[in-house]
Amino acid sequence: MSQRTICVECDGVYWNEARLRCVCCALPLPSSSRRRPNGQARYVCSDCASAPPPFDATLALADYRAPLDGLALGLKFRARLALGREFADRLARLADDLFDTVDRPDVLAPVPLARKRLIERGFNQAWEIARPLARALHIPGDAALIRRDIDTAPQSRLDLEARRHNVDTAFTVAKPVRGMHAAIVDDVMTSGATLEALARTLKAAGARRVTNFVVLRTPKN
């Protein structure tokens, strides 16, 4: 019986996609995309160029599409926790390129769940990725860095503006972050509203930089 977490076919055909992405929000980009003004070979989408988000960078492994969407759902709803380690290993390898040009984060934290939802599920899928990722990157991981104070409605049921309003005041930074580079980990990034709210909260608490690590990115907002 195979001990692989992800089969060879999925790994070879779907996972290792070479794709130019926006350095800020990780959306796929056309080859004609604009370089950042500093001349580095890093690119931004038109939305991030005209209205930069509160976070500074996003790393994503792949697009949210079959069969990888099933892997994300398997971790989140069927407790396939070994996938958290698999995702973390791949994100750690992807991060090597980023750390050639920017400093490593000082702390790494998952997108927090509300207490009720955490009790119901029994685990936070983002922490199942963040914990082994922190070890792989030799960065302190802290599941208690950010607290979700409001048990918000599921984001999947809302449009973009409603998503932003839904999570705008949902989070509190529970520990000092002044002057720090903070990294946030999540399984799927869709509109980016949750990660924007977290970044604003961290920056308001004094964080100097916020980087997102996400497993899958929806191709369009």
From TrEMBL:
Q: Which Gene3D superfamilies match?
A: 3.40.50.2020
Stretches assigned to the Phosphoribosyltransferase domain:
128-217
> What InterPro entries does the annotation carry?
ComF/GntX_DNA_util-trans (IPR051910), PRTase-like (IPR029057), PRTase_dom (IPR000836)
Superkingdom of origin organism: Bacteria
PANTHER family of this UniProt entry?
Answer: DNA UTILIZATION PROTEIN YHGH (PTHR47505)
Family named by the database record: Belongs to the ComF/GntX family.
Please identify the protein, giving its name as recorded. Answer: ComF family protein
User: In which organism is this protein found?
Assistant: Trinickia violacea
